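Late entry, written up from scratch paper. The run itself happened at the end of the previous shift, but nothing got recorded in the book at the time, so transcribing now.
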Amino acid sequence: MKRYAAVAAIAAMLPILLVASHASAQEKLKVVASFSILADLVKNVGGDRTVVASLVGPNGNAHIYAPSPADAKKVAEADVVFINGLGFEGWIERLVKASATKAPIIVATNGIKPRERAGGNNGHAHDHGRSDPHVWQSVANAKTMVGNIREALIAVDPAGKDVYRSNAAAYLTKLDALQREVADVIARIPADRRRVITSHDAFGYFADAYGVTFTAPQGVSTDAEASAKDIAAIIRQIRQQRISGVFLENVTDPRLVKQIASETGARVGGTLYSDALTDEHGDAPTYIDLIRHNLKQLASALTG
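Output as recorded:
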């Protein structure tokens, strides 16, 4: 009888438990991030108190992205929206206006000194103006973004401040270790071999932080066109400097880099991830995975 009474008591409580569970799920902060790398940083800080949606998904190209009505709905329903800024999301202002959202729009790169560009490596005009937006390629900059995300989440959800601070501290410890790892690996590559060709100019912050020279036929936006003169100049550079690192990217058309490699005899070293993560089955499903994958590819090509 006691067993039946216990079962009856649990059965009576089930509706209450289900309502409580539903309420708990509903209380999670609805967060929208503009692209997959930023979304991963937000998830690491927000943890279980947030539900994070990325507008530009895995392997997506934010440079040429066209928002959908579903994106406007996500932004409209969000409690907070995180963007990279520095002109990276040329479409975001139109999307925010179309959504009529009341959510705060947080620029995650606030406080980071942007690399100023005088028209790109090869004189291209592009949609980012004079600032290079690819700040996350420096781990130090990613750490600043994490701090901005933490403070924004606390401002929107003060009750979760202890969780956000704890999550951010744990993630920053991982990023500290990653930063040391990158510096140590690059330091073992001879300085005269740290020269790389990529599709578009997305690795300037990595170059400045770790002492690797990147050259790209496209500017910092993938919709910039490389001229025949630019390509010819890069081919001469590869031959003269015997550059061994020629890489594809997951968000660009590979044909241009393959053409350059074919004409110079340079070996394509693999794929670098610049503006987007992969899905969970790829090589770079998280920001830390992205940096480690790129580091491995660079070390292999430049020391092999």
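The domain at 188-303 is CATH 3.40.50.1980 (Rossmann fold).
(Scratch paper discarded after transcription.)
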